[in-house]
Design brief:
Largest sheet: 5 strands, parallel
Structural class: alpha/beta
Mean pLDDT: 93
Strand order of the largest sheet: 5-6-9-10-11
Number of helices: 6
Shape: globular
Radius of gyration: 16 Å
Oligomer: single chain
Length: about 200
Amino acid sequence: MDREIARNTVKVNRNGWVIDGQARILLCASLFYFRIPSMFWKQRLAQVKAAGYHAIDVYFPWNYHEREYENWNFSGERDVEAFLKMAHEAGLFVVARPGPYICSEWDGGGIPAYVLTDDQAQIRQSDPVFLKAVDRWFRRIIPILRKYEWGGPNGHGSVIAVQLENELDFYQCEDPASYIQALRDMALRYGITVPLFACAGQG
């Protein structure tokens, strides 16, 4: 990567991360709130920090928060804000991965069943029907991630980057560039200011 991606107070270039003007080498562990009872979130985050990690990456499964159409749940075991606050309190940076497709050996890759079974929607494509559904998800999850960005509006954030989609090159996407650009535009429209990136499964 020859160019530098710089947004907010976080920058990424070919040499690594620069956060608040300081070059950083980050050790990152995966820790998924939806696989751990909430009573153990703080303990697990502390253990990750104690093991020497600086950051966690975490998926946000769309279908975990919208079990049925327009039936949203961000409370209790699904309280994303509580988890992000704890990550900040533990002193860990967060790489947020809201999909819409996350894989993670999770049902539907995180995409709700009602979307997967919609004959009009072309899944993981630059398709207006699918993107309209994704927009409903991003309209809810992205402002939360924005609220907990590093250097963000409430001073309690540690999200330093947001990954869009996941390993798209394993999927027969007809126009990956157009699709990823559409996701990028949505993320920006809902306020993300930290760097955005995509994960390639085959390099």
